[in-house]
Amino acid sequence: MGRRIKHNARDVEELARLMKAEANGEGVQGMNMVGTVVANRVEADCSPDFKGLRNIKDAIYQTIPGTETPHFEPVLNGSLYTQRPNEADLQRARDVLHGYRDPRARNSLWFFNPSPGKKYRAPCTATMPRSPMTQFDFAHKNHCFYVGVPGYCNEFYR
Fold first, then answer.
1. What's the confidence (pLDDT) of residue 148?
2. φ, ψ of residue 140 in degrees (nearest 5)
3. Each residue of 6-36: pLDDT tens digit?
4. Helix residue ranges, H only, the chain
5. Beta-carbon neighbour count of residue 97 at 10 Å?
6. How many alpha carbons lie under 13 Å from residue 142 in its C-beta half-sphere?
7. Which of 20, 72, 113, 152 lies at a C-alpha separation of 20 to 30 Å from 30?
8. What pLDDT is attached to residue 133?
9. Does residue 128 contact residue 137 with C-beta atoms inside 8 Å?
10. Which of 110, 10, 116 lies closest to 64 in space, CA to CA?
């Protein structure tokens, strides 16, 4: 269990839309892994990447430090805004906001799809592009999941 994150109905819907958009075709587990990473970022509260993320909306719309580029591809390409979550999707988002974390992604703070739009996944890299403080943890379908290197974000990895 993770920390419960204060939220409202709009936060539930936005998290559900992000979970659907990011994990399209990757099933319930993939959506839960995406939700877990977003919630982990709110819990982490560590510099330089996740300091000051006070709520789920801050995490969803966060930009890469020093840029105006959103962390999450669906925010960048607009697919976040076209998702229509059903009640099961909304309940998955509520579960994450109430503290559920996918066990496999429990320590993940990053993920990415190295082959967007393809039916296959290129090999995961040892570190995530543009994030040298990461190390590869595992792959789930088209996504590669990363944790912080030892000593990074001790506030989260205690």
1. 96
2. -135, 115
3. 999 999 999 999 999 999 889 999 999 999 9
4. 9-22, 27-44, 56-60, 73-77, 87-97
5. 24
6. 15
7. 152
8. 92
9. no
10. 110
CA distance linking residue 33 with residue 39, whole number of Å:
10
- The amino acid occupying position 76 is L
Q: Which amino acid is present at 5? A: I
Structure tokens at 119: 């039916």
Per-residue tokens: 35: 């939700």
DSSP string, 122-155: PPPPSSBTTBTTEEEEEEETTEEEEEEPTTTTTT
Residues of the chain short of pLDDT 50, as ranges, are: none
**How many CB atoms lie under 10 A from the CB of residue 20?**
23
CA distance 71 to 73: 7
Please give the structure tokens belonging to residue 15.
């998290």
pLDDT at 47: 84
